[in-house]
Write a structure and sequence with these properties.
The protein is of the alpha+beta class and about 100 residues long. It folds into two domains: about 5-45; about 50-95, no CATH class. The chain is built from one helix and six strands; from the N terminus they run ββαββββ. It has one helix spanning about 20-45, and strands at about 5, 10-15, 50-55, 70-75, 80-85, 90-95. A two-stranded antiparallel ribbon has the order 1-2. A two-stranded antiparallel ribbon has the order 3-6. The longest helix has 27 residues, at about 20-45. The radius of gyration is 30 Å and the shape is elongated.
Length: about 100
């Protein structure tokens, strides 16, 4: 049986170059690490929530502060309301 010792002092059978084995072990480890990190984030990317921003103005283009804005989800007919700020802007967070 042929044994070879690499630069780390590890014995390997068959005389295969240990630097080649180490290289492939690092490549496989790197690929596995990327998959572990990438797969969960890919599933998070499928979320269907967002932020809806807008503004309310009158016929002259002036902001309408304190206006009530209603957002209705057509699938469930559930409604949410928001008030415009002093600049006439409103925000709906986590909109579906």
């Amino acid at each position: 049986m042929l044994l070879a010792r690499d630069h780390f002092g590890i014995l390997a059978r068959g005389g295969q170059d240990m630097s080649s084995r180490l290289h492939w072990a690092l490549v496989v480890t790197g690929i596995l690490a990327l998959l572990i990190v990438a797969l969960p984030s890919a599933s998070w990317a499928q979320a269907v929530k967002g932020t809806l921003l807008g503004s309310v103005t009158d016929t002259q283009g002036e902001a309408v502060p304190g206006a009530t804005v209603t957002m209705t989800e057509t699938g469930t007919n559930s409604a949410r309301t928001a008030q415009t700020n002093t600049s006439g802007n409103y925000v709906f967070s986590n909109a579906k």
